[in-house]
Write a structure and sequence with these properties.
By secondary structure, the protein is mainly α. Helix content is 56%, strand content 0%.
Length: 300
């Protein structure tokens, strides 16, 4: 099955624009998420490998020094790092997983009306959406995408299937500029800041979790208050720039608290610093940390 799926993506992205624009492929949505992470495609995550997607592939290939042909073979997917693998349908998906196939799962959930980020990270919000989908299809609502759940996505949904237009209220290019600005301002590794932001929101400014975490950096109200009252001493406007500023400053504080240990600082970001000190790093937290560091190395 892996070989068949690889071939499908390769052929789809290589099609002439007139043909590609008439098709919707969930695998193409996974490609678009990866391209968006690297800033070479800023269009909607719609699963249509049209001219804009092909141009995004070409720009990415040129950036990383690959043969520029607009086709997505193994070398191109390998260059995407963790966002380029594995393809949808090749493994069981559960909370904490990260990759191309998670992006596709999120796309399929969003097309069925679920409110989920589409960033390749299987978080709590994605798990809740998956459980809701499973209940609607009379499946075991375990929040795990195994064979039966994955197969259910290929059947006609009892509810309307709609296009997914993932557009942040602030353009992704501007989000990158703000991330870089505040990273430099507070002397935090720019690549690390970008990787954390992508894992949290996919550079989307309009996301709010069930717990109230908001924005590009998914900042909880308690964290925002801590940064304002303890680290800054004044209020910060609730804007995309303010959200990123708070997130970068909090990340810098965690790096200081853990003596520059990036793994522990990231664990503290995801799990809470007090919890890390008290009980150690949880398994799911380790996965999050590993994924952030892998993204940092591939320069999202």
């Amino acid at each position: 099955m892996r070989r068949t799926l690889c071939l499908a993506v390769f052929l789809l992205v290589g099609l002439p624009p007139a043909t590609a624009s008439a098709r919707i492929s969930p695998q193409a949505a996974g490609l678009q998420v990866a391209l968006r992470a690297y800033g070479t495609y800023l269009g909607p995550i719609d699963g249509i490998a049209g001219p804009a997607t092909v141009r995004g592939v070409r720009r990415f290939q040129q950036r990383v020094g690959l043969h520029v042909d607009g086709r997505v073979g193994r070398a191109t997917r390998r260059a995407f790092g963790p966002l380029g693998r594995p393809l949808f349908g090749t493994r069981t998906l559960r909370r904490g997983e990260f990759g191309w196939d998670v992006s596709v799962l999120q796309f399929l959930l969003a097309r069925r009306g679920e409110l989920v980020p589409i960033d390749g990270f299987f978080d709590a919000q994605t798990e809740r959406a998956l459980r809701h989908f499973q209940r609607s299809r009379h499946l075991a609502a375990d929040g795990i995408a195994g064979n039966r759940t994955l197969t259910a996505f290929t059947r006609r949904s009892p509810q309307a299937v709609r296009p997914v237009l993932v557009r942040a209220t602030t353009p992704a290019a501007q989000v990158r500029t703000l991330l870089d600005y505040w990273a430099v301002h507070y002397n935090v590794d720019r690549k690390l800041v970008r990787a954390v932001a992508w894992m949290e929101s996919g550079f989307q400014t309009n996301l709010t979790s069930a717990a109230g975490a908001w924005g590009v950096m998914q900042i909880l109200p308690t964290t925002w208050n801590y940064v304002e009252t303890v680290l800054l001493g004044h209020t910060v406007r609730r804007t995309a720039s303010g959200n990123i500023r708070v997130g970068v400053l909090y990340l810098r504080q965690l790096l200081r608290e853990f003596a520059g240990d990036e793994r522990k600082a990231l664990a503290g970001w995801y799990q809470g610093p007090a919890s890390v000190r008290k009980i150690g790093v949880l398994r799911e937290t380790k996965v999050f940390v590993a994924n952030v560091l892998a993204l940092r190395e591939t320069s999202v």
